[in-house]
Amino acid sequence: MRKTLIIPAIAAAAAICTVAIGGETMSNSTRQDLLTAMKNEGFAHLKYTLFAEQVRKNGNEVLAGILEHTAEDEFEKHFKTHAKLYGLIKSDYENLLNAMSAEFVESTQMYQEMAKRAEAAGDAEAAKHFADFARDELEHRDIFKAAIPKQTK
Fold first, then answer.
1. Which residues, 6+ apart, have CB-to-CB distance to 52 below 8 Å?
2. pLDDT band at residue 151 using 50, 70 and 90 as cut-offs
3. Residue 4 CA: distances (Å) to CA of 18, 42, 91, 96, 110
């Protein structure tokens, strides 16, 4: 019951917060929009890179080049600009903690929940895929965790 009440309270507090970025304050909704934009630009970059690999295998170098150029723009011009405004990159230690936390959530929540839903839907191959990746993400977290004492705090 307490957990049920705490989560909406935190969400409500976050919704009215502002964050200082480069001397300016930025609303939580703008930060959320930047995060959404980064996710979309990052996905487009990776998707277009995969598309380029595929068309290159089919012998279409011209289209591969167009896709790769566009993928690079999505990352270099769009994602990086959004990330800077968002304040994504911090100290090495903070970046490691962020990465470690993300990998832990993917491992213990996201992929495990996806595996359960896939299993319940009768999608055994997808369930195994998600379960395998949950283990991979935990390994990533452990690698980051082991690097912390070696990095700057």
1. 63, 64, 65, 67, 68, 71
2. low
3. 24, 32, 33, 30, 19
